[in-house]
Amino acid sequence: MSEEKKLPLSVAIITLTEERNLPRCLESVRKLASEIVVVDSNSTDGTHAVAERFGAMFEVHPWQGQIAQCRVALSRCTQPWVLCLDADEALSPELAASIRKVFSNGEPAVNGFAINRRTFYLGRWIEHVWYPEWRLRLARRNVAEWIGREPHYVLSVSGATARLDGETRHDRGGHRLLSTDRFFKRAFAPIEITVEARDNDPLLGPKWGKSEVITIVPPVVGEPEAMRYEAVARARDALVDTDRQLWNSTAARIHPRLQRCCLRAFWPTKSAKSS
Known about the structure:
This protein has helices at about 20-30, 45-55, 65-75, 95-100, 180-185, 225-240, 245-250, 255-260, 270-275; strands at about 5-15, 35-40, 55-60, 80-85, 90, 110-120, 125, 135-140, 145-150, 150-155, 160-170, 190-195, 195-200, 205-210, 215. Helix content is about 25%, strand content about 35%. The model is unreliable at about 175-180 and about 240-275 (pLDDT under 50). The chain folds into two domains: about 5-170, Spore Coat Polysaccharide Biosynthesis Protein SpsA, Chain A (Alpha-Beta Complex); about 180-275, no CATH class. By secondary structure, it is α/β, with parallel strands linked by helices. The N and C termini lie far apart (about 75 Å). The chain contains nine helices and 15 strands. Strands 1, 2, 3, 4, 5, 6, 7, 8 and 11 form a nine-stranded mixed β-sheet that branches. A two-stranded antiparallel sheet has the order 9-10.
């Protein structure tokens, strides 16, 4: 069976040290695009070799900002249509088929197409907040322009646009804890807490007790949400007296970092039940 004809389409990608992500991206477009353009910002890994393996035009261009870099990549494209992707994005099979379909009857009637993007983050595909996320990514080259203000940028076209079926699959790499990622180092650092509780003894009066310092180590980055919930619940249970009487008459003061982890929900108010 002969390979399907490639479309009058350039794929424009900017990169910086994307050896891990780029193969997945390029594999998803290699049967569609007549041209692949990669503009790189001095990668220190095998990004160049990956691009060459897929027959991409590779150019090193010093980093001048997200919008400027995207404009350089767009300017290097030569086909009538351009598909702009991030190196950590890949087309779903449905989207690839949808793109091929719009060219099946000749020139598309509109000047651009918005594509839905699904994001993989912390070990799972996000079905809320970032989804659906429609972005104009496929455009007629001579009416397309990158606009915006750093770091927010959008591809804009003059004329009518439409939406495509399928989606790009965006792997943000959040399942890997990078030593340079301050957010993850802060969010997933061990938490030390102490618990103070009062026992309202009717004869001897209130008595205060204070636990030893307890260290809670959050689950590793990338565990599914349900597993993280269970891990924190287990940590909660380790603090609670086995007969549960302690928490029926307790005012607990929790370390602020633990509160910021939204763990208040794990200690619901019981005054209504005990009254």
